[in-house]
Specification:
Blueprint: H1 21-36, H2 42-49, H3 66-95, H4 102-131, H5 143-155, H6 162-176, H7 183-203, H8 210-226, H9 237-240
Helix pairs in contact: 1-3, 1-8, 3-4, 4-5, 4-6, 6-7, 6-8
Length: 244
């Protein structure tokens, strides 16, 4: 029996901190597969160390490290899977609660586009490992054919991060316009977007979003998991049931 003299308080909803960790996994795995496991011919790397230009031709396809491409393919596919789970979690946890927010839909859409593009980029790395020297199907393609796959892997794992970059811009909007995300996180995200966009304009390199967007995604996931944002607040039972 409830004590009539005991004040009734509404329990705080708490925070749903688990789902942003999928962004952390996707970011770290993606950075590893895109940057750390990027594969170049040994002659090109040696020339770069000497500060010299090197013309990559089919003649140096035997210098590619198969294991780096093989691991890049596996780790990259794990990144794609994590990114898709994060996009689904974002739709369920954020878009469902804030259906009028266009920026919220941009975040999940950008993550999905990146996942689709990276599936191809990492798949080409796997194909190069499969058909290249010491691969299980080596000899199926001449060096000229391997060179085509190499060219696809040059920017293939970098360009698709544009979707995550657009999502970072949307996160900045969510922070400053809609007040759904920490403004500190939103400011950092906006500055990162401006820096990469300036690089696009000044340098004209289409893969500039690739080197650091995985790290940004991991940082944003950690921030959402441990920080305070409206999108990670748990819904009260009354809020979760549609009004009659």
């Amino acid at each position: 029996m409830t004590d009539l003299f005991t004040p009734v308080t509404t329990p705080k909803p708490g925070r749903d901190r688990g789902w942003p960790l999928w962004a952390v996994a996707a970011g770290l795995l993606g950075f590893t597969a895109t940057v750390l496991l990027d594969t170049r011919p040994h002659s090109e790397l040696a020339a770069a160390d000497r500060g010299e230009q090197f013309l990559v031709t089919p003649a140096v396809m035997d210098e590619l490290d198969r294991m780096s491409n093989y691991l890049g393919f596996l780790v990259g596919f794990a990144a794609v899977a994590s990114l898709l789970v994060f996009a689904a979690a974002w739709r369920a946890r954020v878009e469902h609660r804030f259906p009028d927010s266009i920026a919220a839909r941009v975040v999940s859409g950008g993550a999905t586009i990146t996942a689709a593009g990276l599936a191809l980029g990492y798949g080409w790395k796997g194909a190069l490992a499969n058909y290249g020297y010491e691969g299980p199907e080596t000899g199926m393609f001449a060096d000229e054919g391997l060179f085509v796959y190499y060219m696809l892997t040059d920017f293939g794992p970098y360009i698709p991060w544009l979707g995550v970059l657009v999502g970072a811009g949307a996160l900045a909007w969510l922070a400053w316009r809609e007040r759904l995300v920490s403004r500190i996180l939103g400011t950092f995200s906006g500055l990162y977007v401006l820096l990469v966009v300036a690089g696009y304009v000044l340098m004209g390199v289409p893969g500039l979003a690739g080197p650091a967007s995985g790290l940004w995604l991991a940082m944003a996931g950690v921030w959402l998991a441990v920080g305070r944002s409206r999108i990670t607040e748990r819904q009260r039972a009354a809020d979760a049931v549609p009004a009659a």
